[in-house]
Amino acid sequence: MAASASDELIRLYDLSKSFRLKGNTITALENINLSIHEGEIFGIIGMSGAGKSTLVRCINFLERPTAGGVIFDGQDLGTLSPAALRQVRRQMGMIFQQFNLLMQRTALQNVCFPLEIAGISGQEAKKRGLELLEIVGLSERANAYPAQLSGGQKQRVAIARALASDPKVLLCDEATSALDPETTDAILNLLKDLSKRMGLTVIVITHEMRVVEEICSRVAVIADHQIAEVGTVKEVFTQPKTEAARRLVYRVEGDPINFQQTEGTQLRITFEGGDAFEPILAELILETREPVNILHADTRTIDGCIYGQMVIQLPPRSDVYRVSEYLRGQGVAVEEVAAHV
Ligand SMILES: Nc1ncnc2c1ncn2[C@@H]1O[C@H](COP(=O)(O)OP(=O)(O)OP(=O)(O)O)[C@@H](O)[C@H]1O
């Protein structure tokens, strides 16, 4: 669904950021233009050093852009007084890879901290803090100290704390990068749920493609400090247009496959949104009685549909025509990439 201009929560315009370091100028971001809509989960991906963290810190003006600016909910942050900027920042929660909890305070006290700073009374802050811990599924650990919590639990506390000021957007800087895959899934589900239930806009900075696949609706690829590509996750992950996006999405440059030395015939199968490949291959083997060997697979499941490529090998003297026709009949594109007898 196309977003209307009124859906826009954040606009970055002509934004550049450079740092001065020992007489040298280091460019972190160059001429970034980006619009983020209310209620969406937006991913920002890029190689290390591309400028992702700087971008997120410019969004909430922890870093002031060197040129261009940020419009948040209709207000140009560069024009605000320090007090007005502090007010706006309260609408932008942030979570980090290392959680950044206060170690001498319990989970509940951590969540209450921003409420107390905002002048809310102890009793009221405690009540709200407990509600927030309930929302993130951690009520029973309210009195535990961070050292007594697992990584996933610490991140839940950090999320509850970030939600305390009732923000419009949650900025997540590599928020799941220190977590194991199972805990990552649990945190991603929580973020998805919060976005859906509270209409929260979430911006996810990550180097993990699967995080973007799992929760984001749109994604921007940053390369060499600029936006290389922006689009829906489906568009960017299935048909990356730039080399930078291809490198990230496929994790390789150019054509990743070279199995010229392998015996038999190799077929490249391209999936463009059909059902999972396991049943297709199982049926293929049953139907044609050919022993198919998977040489390479780089596929992704998005919205329950499969995209990407796979190279299969058939032994010498196989009925390649029959196998190809069977696969085409299942709606996948097939192309012979090598044949050796
Ligand atoms: N405070 C700073 N002073 C000087 N240079 C900086 C500063 N912050 C970032 N940079 C530089 O800006 C560039 C972008 O850094 P940034 O941390 O935004 O990249 P990143 O994409 O988040 O990388 P990573 O994934 O490794 O965290 C890098 O060259 C970095 O060294």
From TrEMBL:
Q: Which InterPro entries match?
A: AAA+_ATPase, ABC_transporter-like_ATP-bd, ABC_transporter-like_CS, ACT-like_dom_sf, MetN_ABC, MetN_ABC_transporter-like, NIL_domain, P-loop_NTPase
Pfam families registered for this protein in UniProt: ABC_tran, NIL
MF GO annotations: ATP binding
Query: Which keywords does this Swiss-Prot/TrEMBL entry list?
Result: Amino-acid transport, ATP-binding, Cell membrane, Membrane, Nucleotide-binding, Translocase, Transport
Give yes or no: UniProt keyword Magnesium: no
PROSITE patterns referenced in this protein's UniProt entry, alphabetically: ABC_TRANSPORTER_1, ABC_TRANSPORTER_2
Q: Which residues belong to any copy of the ABC transporter domain?
A: 10-249
Q: Which SMART domains match?
A: AAA (SM00382), NIL (SM00930)
Top-rank taxon of the source lineage equals Bacteria
Q: Give the PANTHER family listed for this entry.
A: AMINO ACID IMPORT ATP-BINDING PROTEIN, METHIONINE IMPORT ATP-BINDING PROTEIN METN
**In its UniProt entry, what is this protein called?**
Methionine ABC transporter ATP-binding protein
Q: Which organism is it from?
A: Peptococcus simiae
Q: What is the lineage of its organism?
A: Bacteria, Bacillati, Bacillota, Clostridia, Eubacteriales
